[in-house]
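[Meeting: bench + compute handoff]

Bench side (C.D.) handed over the final construct sequence. Compute side (W.E.) agreed to return the predicted structure before the next meeting so the bench team could plan truncations. Sequence as handed over:
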Amino acid sequence: MHLHVRYFASLRDAAGCDAETIVHDGDAVSLYSRLARQHGFSMPQSRVRLAVNGAFVPWTQALHDGDEVVFLPPVSGG
């Protein structure tokens, strides 16, 4: 299935892009694991929030073709 993946903060920096389209058959945990290896993410999945199609969801959320998947690491601002 085709997934539209968006990155923010440190994950965006590590990926070197804001977004990309990925062909992936699996769940969000396996997707993050694959992208962590591919892009060198040092942030463990347990510290990242997951949103699918604009809503925060648990990591057990099923993914479907065309979904927008957003990985949100903790950020601080001032």
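W.E. noted at the follow-up: The first helix runs from residue 9 to 15. C.D. will use this when planning the next construct.
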